[in-house]
């Protein structure tokens, strides 16, 4: 899940909140996912817990008839083990999608995401995703990750100290060199 105040959720998706997206995903999962499938919903690491996602998700899953197959994952837990154990990742347009692509898992972006590209993410319907989604193309994945690393993203993580130190150093270097969003592009004063 993404933070509900995330600009990318408001500007680059048709969802007004996470409840709407959760209902869509859980309903589709209930109807089209394999009977043995489980749905893990990961809370954003910075979510303040004001909406009580555990109870909300339990109610949505019960209404869809899959209460025993839908589980909430604490946002503080690292995502990589859950992604690696999964058949795929559904997100609105979170950077978790980039993480899943890097780990070779199929990704369904419900919003407008930078990685919503044939060969990187699933281009079919959500209903078909559960059974037929393919993993990202490895060579396209490598090129995509190199491209965003050089042009857009700064390495690091904002939720833990070592990652924060790397992010701050990388951002400061780009600002100092006048490189914003693209390599070798100078910031005009």
UniProtKB/TrEMBL annotation:
<dbReference type="InterPro" id="IPR007833">
    <property type="entry name" value="Capsule_polysaccharide_synth"/>
</dbReference>
<dbReference type="Pfam" id="PF05159">
    <property type="entry name" value="Capsule_synth"/>
</dbReference>
<protein>
    <recommendedName>
        <fullName>Capsular biosynthesis protein</fullName>
    </recommendedName>
</protein>
